[in-house]
Structures are given as C-alpha cells and as structure tokens.
Protein 1
Amino acid sequence: MKKITLILSLLIVVLASCKQSKKTHAEAIPSQYVKEIHSYAQPNNAVIKHLNLAISVNFNEEIISGTASYDITNNNATILILDTKFLTIEKVEADGIATTFELGTFDEQLGQPLKISITKNTKKVTVHYKTTHKTEALQWLSPQQTADKKHPFLFTQGQAILTRTWIPIQDSPQIRITYNATVTVPKELMAVMSAENPKEKTANGIYHFTMKQPISPYLIALAVGDINYKPISNRTGVYAENSMLDKVHTEFSDMEKMVTAAENLYGTYAWEQFDVIVLPPSFPFGGMENPRLTFATPTVIAGDKSLTSLIAHELAHSWSGNLVTNATWEDFWLNEGFTVYFEMRIMEAIYGKERAEMLALIGRQDLEDELENFKDQPNDTKLKLDLTNRNPDDGMNSIAYDKGYLFLRTLEENVGREKFDAFLKSYFSAHAFSTMNTEKFIQYLNTHLLEKNNINFNTNEWVYEPGIPNNQVTIHSDKFKNILQTLHTFIENKEITNVTTSDWTPQEWVHFIRNFPDEMDLTHFKILDNTFNLTNSSNSYIAMVWYEQAIKHNYRENNIDANIEGFLTHVGRRWYVTTIFNAYKKSNKLDEALTIYKKTRANYHSVTVNTIDNLLGYTK
Ligand code: BES
Ligand code: ZN
C-alpha cells in the first residue's frame, strides 16, 4: 500500500513538473488570443502585462500628459503594437533607451496603431504622450456642470474602445493587465480610479493607485473633482460632491446587503472594496462597472431608493464582465445578459419576487420595442453580433441585455433554479480573471449543464438566430396587470384619483405611462398632469417616459416644453436623451429636436453626441 502511494506521489511530482515547464513555455509563447477586429494589437506576438501610469491632469488646457510604462511578455517580436486615437506621442523608450516608433494610418473607428521597435529581450516600454481636445473618453466639465458649481470635474469612460483616447494601450477586452498610477491634480480636487482609492484629499494633489488584479483596459477609469467619501460598511461606500454626499449615502444604504446577497448567489466578491461615485449629470450612462469603483449617474438619486437596481446591475458585473470578460465586443451579451439576470436575482433576494418581476417585465417591454426598432435589420437581434467594419457601440442595444436575460431565464426555468445556480457559480469560478467567447460558453453550457441533465435546449437558435424563440418563458406581474386595468378604466372614464395610485412604485408609474394607447387624447394628459404633476416629477425615470409620451401625443401644457429642454440640457445619460430625441423623430418633429440639440450638444459626452448625431442626422 505504502509502495503504491510512493509511486503515485512520484508520478504526481513528475507530472506536475511537466505541467510546470509547459506553463513557463506557454507564458513565453502566448497564442491564446483570438482575432479581434477592434484592436490593432497583436498580443500573440508581444503583449502588455502591467501598466505604470504617471500623469498630470491640467484643467486649464484640458489635457492629460505624462508617461505610460508597460511590462511586456515578448514572443520574439521586434515590434510592439499599441492602440491610440487622438493622442500626441512625444517619445518612446525600450528598457530606458530611446527607440523608434511609427503611427499608422488613422481609422475613424479604431484610431492609429502605435508601432514600437523593440528587441527580443525588451522587458519594459515607456511612452511619453499627451491627450488632445479630440479625446473621446474624457469629459471635462465646467464648475457650472457640477452639483456644487465651484470646481471643474473630469471623468473618463473606457467601454467599449475609448481607453485608447487617453492611454496608449492594447485596447482589446481579452487583454488583462494590472496597473499602478501616480496622478497629479489641482490641490483642491481629489482623484479616484478603478483601483485602491484614497478616502481623503492629499495636501499636494498627488495620488497613488494600485490595481493588483488583472483587468481589461476598458475598465481603467479616472475621476477628478471636489468629492468626498462616506463609508456604508467596511467594504462599501460612496463618493460624491459635498451637497450630494448625504443624499447619495442614504439612497445607496443597501449596498452592503447587495454585496452579501450577490456573494450568497455566485461566490466571493473578488475585488475587496465596492464603492460607487456619483458623477455630474452629463455622465453618459446609468452606471459603469469600473472595478472597485462603479461610476453612476445622479439621475438614480430619486430620494426613495426606487432606482437602485442600477447598483445591483453594476455590482453583478464584478462577476459577469470584470471577472469573466467578453473576449470581443461581438460577445457583449455575455457581459450584459448575464449581468441583467444576476441583477434580477440580487433584487429578488433583497426586495422580493414582486419587485424583481416588475423590473423583468419592464425589460421585456424594452425588448419588444427594440425588436420593433430593428425590424429591418434582423441580424442585429442576434445575441452573437457581427460587428465587421462597425463601431462596437452600434451593437450595444437592449438585445444583449434583455434577450440575453430572457435566454438565461428560460434556461433557468427548464433546468430548475438549483441546478442553474450551481452551474453559474461554477462558470464564474472556473473562468475567473479570464475571457469568454460565445462558442466557449456554449460548450461549457452543454458539458456542465445540459448533457449532464439530459436536457435538450435550442441554444443555437437563441444565440445565432434573430428574434425570440417560441420556448421563451412568460413573465407575470399581478401588479402590472392591475396597472393596465387601471389605465383601461381611465381611458374610458377619464377619471383617476390619488387614492388609486397612492401605493404605486415608480416602476408601476413607468408601466402605466409607457402603455398609453394611441387614442389617448389631450384631456387625458391634462387630467393626469393636474392630478399628479407628472411634468414636474422628481423621479427621472417617470419624467423621461412622461416626456416621451407628451412628445408623441403633442401634449404641450404646464410649460412642459421648457421642462423637456431643461432635462435635455442637464442630463447626458444616453438612454434618456436618446429616448426623448427619438420621440421627436418618430413624431415628425425633427426640426424641434434639432433646435434643442444645437443648444444642448456641447453639454454631452462624446458617446451621447455620437449616438444623437446619428439619430438626428446632425452635421456641424
Ligand atoms: N457596461 C454598461 C455600460 C456601457 C455599455 C458602457 C456599453 C459602454 C458601452 C453598464 O453596466 C450598463 O449596462 N449600464 C446601464 C444600466 C443598467 C441598469 C442597464 C445604463 O447605463 O443604462
Ligand atoms: Zn451592464
């Protein structure tokens, strides 16, 4: 017996050392990267592993300048290719010695490859650079655009391919790097990043950051402003401008509960700290899942915690997206579909099934609207996208989110929750800190869930075909059923009172408003507005859908036009802004939309500008 054990352990040692040597070998010759149409980098030849950033932020000139140094793994290449767009490259060094470099032809979507001469032995490359006024990632805000109106503000947005407009980088989601940064900012301001963060201002305006876990370049993020920190638990907290800090803290007080609920579902939170920074209202997204520090719009601060599913969503990305990352932007649904599913499960765990089902049904209606929008381009309703010659932003619509969700929800109901949860948990832990593409996921799903349980499932139809397969599950909400009943009665009787609606949640209001029938007339609008003052709703979501309907039905009382224009001046959240401008467009009011847009365009971040320029056919 002993002998066998001895032989066995010897064998294990031998095998392990084989594996070890293979691994070292594999590290020297990494050929694990798939073809990526949105990056010039050739990571199979030479790849960056660590970034050391030393930059200063100049608010007067609206420029970031400094150096980016990279530790590289080189597979005998004599050239290192980085992605850049709208950057000025001043000088490049290889292992401390000046080396030659060349900027390739400029492409509207991708920018320019920066080709740096290296030797087979080069370990470190340093690029001296600065940003330009054409940068797409950065938004420089005047004091007027902030909450406190005293100091300027800066934030970055990296996803999908914008990091290359503020850092020269191999800008593909399948690249993973650790990073350090030293950032110098004006003394009155604080800098925070998707990294270990300060909790107080420093005296000299110099901040040091470390991100010790490898992340994709689109998740490198920086915000600079007159902000403060307030903890919620020992691993969660919020950053915001002074006048917002307490409100934000109260609104997001369930953050620790959310992290605990998420961990109970799909395993330990991998990033130690989970903080949220609330940015000025021009931030183009609801939220962005920058690791350790989610960036969020102030439009979710409703005063009643009603819009905090956004935090659950960004938190969920700490698993789906940041831990297991879509390999290319054509696999975007792996990031967002899983995240919406996870978001709903967190919401259900904390606030119950009823609330989660209302959220899911709102998503189901978004999906229906998106299918209608894409009725002439059915290929864009596939989960796996074809983005050849397209900006990845073009593929980033509700399909990835809501069809992705419906697919996973349908899977869940077919295999049962227990098995599905065990599967998801193992999926996240087996692929932590690595990338995933659609094909690899389907294989994993087949082996670890479907075949194991003898289940036939039309996965390929869900993923590779347009539209929604017939086996989709139906989502029910009694509350929403009542809302439609109330709406119906109101249409008929033109009567509705505060009593009927007194316990409605904002989600019920949204459902009520979004389902106005075409035959709604202006008296209906007047009654609703006089009774509930919807034109002045302090809930941004309710206001947004009310404005959308008002535009479509040409309701113009109660000074609503000024309110809409005010909203569009103030808020740069792309989803809201797009919905409202699209309502003008669909109602043949393009001129009106353009008149407003000419005034508000300068307030928006580049991603919102790009979308609305396209939507309204705007040219400068
Ligand atoms: N990662 C996305 C934001 C994003 C998507 C940025 C595509 C750039 C390109 C983020 O997690 C997100 O989905 N935000 C949503 C909120 C969510 C609750 C659906 C948003 O901004 O509305
Ligand atoms: Zn998301």
Protein 2
Amino acid sequence: MEKIKNKRILSGIQPTGNLHLGNYLGAIKNWVNLNNDSECLFCIVDLHAITTWPKFDDLNIASREVLAGMIASGVCPKKNTIFIQSHIPEHAELAWIINCVSRIGWLNRMTQFKDKAGKNQEKVSSGLMVYPNLMAADILLYKATHVPTGEDQKQHLELTRDIAHKFNTDVGSEIFPLPEPVIQGPATRVMSLRNGTQKMSKSDISDMTRINLIDCNDTISEKIKKAKTDSGDFPVDKMELEERPEIKNLINIYASISGKNIEQVVENFSSTGFARFKAELTEILINEISPIREVIRELMTESQELDKILDDGSKKASLIAKPVIKEVFDAIGFNKRRDL
Ligand code: AQP
C-alpha cells in the first residue's frame, strides 16, 4: 500500500450482508495498511443500503457485523473514526445539494446503476439512481483527500471529482478538495466464483459465488472445490489469463493473499495443475479467514461495546461534518442557521 501522509482518508461499506473476500481484499485489508500519519474515517453507509430496500429489522445487526468484520480484519477503532452514515444528518443534507449540482447525463453514464438495475430501470428506486451523489456527499462532507476502494467504485470517484469541481466553480470558492482514488493490489476487483465476468457481491443470490468472512473452513473448502474453472490446463503464461476470467480471478486471489506476484503463482503451479493449486488456495484462504471469523463471532456477542464504538465515532465525525455543511450553506447563501 502506498504511504499517504497527512491526508484525510474516507471510505465506506454498505451493511447489506456478510462481508466477503472482495470487500476484504479490495477495501478493508488496504485500510489496515494505511499510513498512521493519516486521519482515517470509515463509514458504514446504511443510507446507501436502503436504495435496494432490504429487510429493515436486519440493518442494526448488519451494521454491527460490518464493524466486527472491520475490527477483526485489523482496523483499529481507537486510531480511526468508524461511524454510521445515518447518525450524521449532514450526509443527507449535502446529498440534496449535490443532487442539484450533479447532471442527469453524468448519472446516466454510471455502469453500476446499469448493472444493479438491469432490465428493471423503470422500477428501481430513484435512490439507486442518485446513489453516486450520496457517495460524493459522504466524501466531500469530510473534505477527504484520498478514497481507498475497489475498482468498482472508480467511476463514482471520478464523478465525485466532477461534482466537487463544478460546485467550487459555481460558488466561486475552492471549498472541496478533489479526492484521489486509491485502488491498489492484485485483487482490486474480486470476481464471482461462479462467473469470472461478474464481481463478487454481497447481494448475489447464490452464496457459492463468494467467500464470506464468517464462512467455516469446510464451507471455504467446498466453495473453492466448486469454483468454476475451464477445460484447459493450468496456464503457463500470464498473458493467457486475459481470455480465462475464472482462472485469472482465482490466481489474483492467491497472489493477493500470499503476497506473491501473478507470474510467480503461474510459474509455481503450471507444472502441478489445478488440483494442487485449489488445495493450496483453500489452505491459504482458511489460514487468512479463520482467525478473522473467530474474532467476528466473539465481537458479535458484545453488541453494547460495538454500539459504543459507533456512537463515539459519530461524535467525532460530527465535529468535522458540521463546520463543512455550514461553509457549504454560507457559500450557497442559505439563510443562516443559528445552531451551526
Ligand atoms: N468484488 C469486489 N472486489 C473488490 N472490491 C470490492 N468491493 C466490493 N466488492 C468488491 C469494495 O468493498 C467496499 C465496500 O463495498 P460496498 O459494500 O459498499 O458496496 P459494493 O461495492 O456494492 O459491494 P457489494 O458486495 O457488491 O455489495 P452489494 O451487493 O450490496 O451491492 C468498496 O470499497 C468496494 O469497492
């Protein structure tokens, strides 16, 4: 992970289900490695989660599960500010302003909306359409300078930069920094275990498509055994991977966890084949995930402790958010709010 000094880092995660290997390798593991000199804010984005209208009685538990997953993966709640998006009303306030800055044409180009809405574009919530505006609000509300994410969020970050630039230009003041994406490592886009062209996702209806951080060892083993490959032999050259998405995905996962590069992994297994590769992949996945799973299980029995971390995080986040929304309101020329 590139060292980022004296910057403000913000990243978010939706409480939409169990954290999986994509969330871990594409985002959370990188958060752990961020430079200690930087201030880090991690937001559990429950306002985003309702764009697909999940079962509401699960949202509280799901938020705790995300927090437990983050802590178990090594994100320190004392060093970092971890909080829930809906606890800070300024996210929704700034999102409305951004709805008025961002252009429909820009949103229409967002591929994640097209992927998630599929053929149902007329029937999905308008929240799903303006999801990237809310994400921009999350980032700009803290004047974050860097945003570590998986590859899937790159387009939303480019949009955030466009929004920040337009707002600054419209009000004639450099209020928002243009945030830099931080997309690093060999597993910035972990794909489904059943389809190498689709990203691993919490909301995929098939659990066999992903490795969850709470999966037991037998489940991990079963999922890797059944992970789709193709009829060819183990690749002998990295170039072959471009035509073989499922194999590329498994090799990327292996490389990311083992710390080896893709060429080394290809070389290691080209003479031994898939059976040995899958056995070793299972072993390193179990070694990586089982300690995380055990800590998650333990933390989930301490719900009061988890809620306290989130309450403390919200207080800290609020201290940053309030002055920024005031600056934005002033720049627009809203009548002054006396409580800010
Ligand atoms: N497959 C992935 N590979 C690499 N990184 C990923 N991320 C998500 N999936 C992958 C990164 O994890 C962080 C949190 O993502 P999120 O939960 O906020 O939303 P998402 O990207 O929409 O993730 P899911 O799992 O696909 O959730 P659902 O199914 O609810 O939409 C982000 O940094 C993301 O890049």
